[in-house]
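Structure tokens please, single chain.
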Amino acid sequence: MLASVLFAFALSACTSHSAVAGNSAKVYYSDSRYIQLIAPQNSGISVEENQQMTGTYGEKNFSGESWMLLNDSVVHMMLFSSMGNTIAELVYTNDSLAFNSKWMNAEKMKPEYIIADIQFCYYPAPVLEKNFKAAGFAFAENQNGDILFRTLSDGNTLILKMEKSGNKIRLENVLRHYSYQIVSEIKE
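Here you go.
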């Protein structure tokens, strides 16, 4: 009994939490320019899916399972280990942004940047373009057959590029040197 209480205490003692007001979160896509996150109510989308994620950051690689819900009231993402344990949870609403994890340092993770990447991949182009243009960035979207391309630039400097084909999304942050791929589970 004592061992299980100590184990539960140890797990809760390692829990890391980060929270900010959702409407005040700033995302610096360059050293001098930033955007505000787009409120979920302005997304105009509804997505719920299981996903397989893989990515790189510098020399580090990561992969895992995830679940995501996007709609007009929330962006909610959960990351899972291969054993099905929850590694992290991210929740963004109109007035709050919270990141919780027992395994990751939430103070080092910037949840607003994760939300911004999700928005870049999933939100409609007109909504994104308006937000980026207001901050002085250039956003572009092109379709070539079944492949959707998006880019974000600051002047002549490419910052982000995204390619979506079928159930696969690949995002690369050229400036910050990370990339990831999301493969959505196809529901039949």
